[in-house]
Amino acid sequence: MNKFRETAGYALGFILFVVLLPVIMWLCSGRPALAGESRLAPVVIAAVLMLAGLLLSIWAIVYMRRVGDGNPMDAFGHEVAPRTRHLMTGGPYRLSRNPMLTGTLTYLAGFIVWFWTWQAVLVWVIFFAIMFIQVLTEEHRLRKDFGDEYEAYCRRTGRFLPFSLRMW
Fold first, then answer.
1. Domain tally, the chain
2. Neighbours of 106 (CB within 10 A)
3. CA Rg, the chain, in Å?
């Protein structure tokens, strides 16, 4: 059953974050042509952002599985798949306390550049707001689970970026 939940968690994450959100951005943007008369620079920038975001997210997922001995699918305090057993502070987690989300946000920023509409930006902002609430919920659980070790990690690592901003 745990293997099924774990696989389902990865599949759900892929469907939601890699497929569904870009489709929503595309639909909300008025279904712009996906190919055609486009300037090269925005397409290259979009592709770089998408690839970099996906690679960061995949690195974080693999690291979480190997080092954290768990799965990223924890939704607003509800365990969708087995949670990590170890606090991860190395690998991509040296760069950000939420590298998977940072990667996803970067990936979706690539679609903003590709579609170049305010509607795509709005979808990104709404997604960010929802995920920010999720991050705060997760931080509360991590403080309970890992205590002082997590607090020290928070002091030296930014929530989304390699450097720490007071609000992030």
1. 1
2. 20
3. 17
Question: Do 14 and 7 meet the contact criterion of CB atoms below 8 Å apart?
Answer: no
Helix runs in 82-166, H state only: 99-115, 118-156
CB neighbours (10 Å) of residue 100? 21
CATH number at residue 112: 1.20.120
pLDDT digits (tens, 9 = 90+) for 116-137: 999 999 999 999 999 999 999 9
**Domain span at 70:** 2-156
Asked, for residue 139, whether it belongs to a domain, the answer is: yes
At residue 41 the predicted structure's pLDDT band, cuts being 50, 70 and 90, is: confident
Residue 103 lies in a domain: yes
Mean pLDDT value across residues 1-7? 71
Q: Where residue 36 falls among pLDDT bands split at 50, 70, 90?
A: low
163 inside domain: no
Q: Is residue 161 part of a domain?
A: no
d(CA 146, CA 9): 23
Helix (H, G, I), strand (E, B) or coil at 75: strand
Kindly tell me the sign of the dihedral angle through the C-alpha atoms of 5, 78, 76, 83.
negative
Beta carbons of 115 and 25 less than 8 angstroms apart: yes
Q: How far apart are CA 23 and CA 9, in angstroms?
A: 20
Q: For residue 3, is pLDDT > 90?
A: no
